[in-house]
Amino acid sequence: MEPILVVDNLVKRFGGLTAVNRVSLEVYPHEVLGLVGDNGAGKSTLIKMISGVYRPDDGRIVFAGQNMEVGSPMEARDRGIETIYQDLALAENLDVGSNIFLGREPVQPVLAGLVSVLDRRYMHVESKKVLDRLDIHIPNLNVQIRNLSGGQRQAVAIARAIYWDAKLMIMDEPTAALGVTEQRKVLSLVKTLRDQGVPVIIISHNMQDVFAVADRIVVMRRGIKAGECLAKESTVDEIVSLMVGAETVEK
Amino acid sequence: MSALSKNHAPAQATEDSVSSAPVRLLGRLWAWLFLAILVLIFSALAPGFFSVRSFQNIGTNASETLIVALGQTFVIIAGGIDLSVGFVLGLSSVVAAVVMRSLNESGYPQGLVLIIGLVAGLGCGFIFGAFNGLLISRLKAPPFIATLGTLGIAQCFAFLLSAGQTVGRQPDIVRVLGNNYLIFFNPDQSPTLFQPPPGADLRNVLGVVTLPLVMMILVAVIAHFVLSATRFGQHTYALGGNREATKRAGVNVDRHTLKLYIVCGMLAALGGLVWTMRFNSGSPIAGEALMLNSVAAVVIGGASLFGGEGNVLGTVVGSMIMAVLYTGLVMLNVPPFWQFGAVGAIIIIAVLVDQAQSGLIRT
Predict the structure, then answer these.
(1) Cβ of A92 and B241 within 8 Å?
(2) Shared-domain flag, residues A172 and A246
(3) B 224-263 near A (Cβ less than 8 A)
(4) Around Cβ B168, how many Cβ atoms within 10 Å?
(5) Out of A1, A7, A82, B45, which could bridge A161 as a Cys pair, Cβ 3.0 to 4.6 Å?
(6) ipTM of this predicted structure
(7) pTM of the full structure
């Protein structure tokens, strides 16, 4: 199977510091890739190059068979790379539908096309559809986002990305700041995404989470790729050893 | 209230919203209650207060305040504030009056004089609104400081241009627009629009709905439509709710901010034009009280100074509270200056109510 994302020898330097040093990885459709590493290992820098925030100093990124040229977050999003940030980027004073359609609101012409009014009905119906498709339950879509729980907010952010045809989802610490039940819901949502053909790169400090959802795990240490393994063939200890750079891996 | 909020553990935000409903309802409706109570009190104490004529007066007196406050509503919902509205209003009123006076004296037809005067006044609001908007969106000046600065500049020009005097000698059409009624009921004749029939005995003519009232209602309806049913309104709320998210969603937030301050500046200018029509002159101090009053109307109406909340109906109620207060005090022979103190106190209470509510909702 063809990988949807190929990262080839990516390098990013900040002054004298090489934050990411010749890192390569691939992401295939129908898989969840866990990206782990200690603080400062270069995970975030790597992710920011993929999502267009930083421009790589060397190497290339091929997404869906096409070279990603001069990076911008907008370009990455237009191509289908969606990043779900910890702060979620939702307007808390708006309802679910308004957030899913924020910036791309459907309108209907009235008064012979003189003015356009928001099509709230369409927003509501379509939001309901995409939430159902992802098996997300929010009892009342008309409440403001601030009245939803952390997990529900996370789900709305993901649903928005899916609605707008995300082809690769990047999630940075999606379970941080969530209760246990909520964590489980978000992780099962990640699996739903994978099953529906949307690959996910998940960054997490939480080994349990990573092992719960990831098919493959890439470990970073001090800017380099320290290792890569299949989740079901490795243990937490092995991964941690790779993270901290222990000389040998004892089984 | 503290006992109430204790029952709602922060994490259960969804349950919270249900059980604190009475508190939130009170928070939303207190302005209406307050308005109703004011009307009841003044009706009981001031003879003649409870009448169509006096309500029409109150509405007409509120017209500039409401028009300006509607502009302020847009800006405050988006998380900003415009302190310059009062003197932008004054300057627009002076500019329009000076232009119309000189054109009128040069013998141009009245309709043309009026149109040029209106364009000059609105242009003034556009320029100051755009200046505020550019300072805030491009140069990232804090709205409070940027608009305080433009307040001073507008005040300076307004006084220079008028030499500190009211600018009179306006064409007749200005007075007509500001003081005539939509419908005139005439004895022995069918009702007429805008003008009483020529030669009618004005003492027997009953005018209903002043023209400033018509303009005010028109602006309020349009503002309500824009805010609640268009993408422009939606983006205004989003901007006040989460600027970063709105930007990430692809909305050009700088341009939207610029547009908001232009809207606010032009509505301030429109308020100045209505003032000029009502008083048949321009005055640099026409909007002196409006910096406080426009913000007060919006905040009393339930908007949050943190941004993201507020609506046109609330601002209408807020403006009416102040107008009722003013008229009621005058009719009771109480010095109307008490209104300033009362509005000041109300705005403080409104902000405290807002914060208490936020404490319940935002956890």
Answers:
(1) yes
(2) yes
(3) 225, 229-231, 234-235, 237-238, 240-242, 244-246, 248-251
(4) 12
(5) A82
(6) 0.83
(7) 0.87
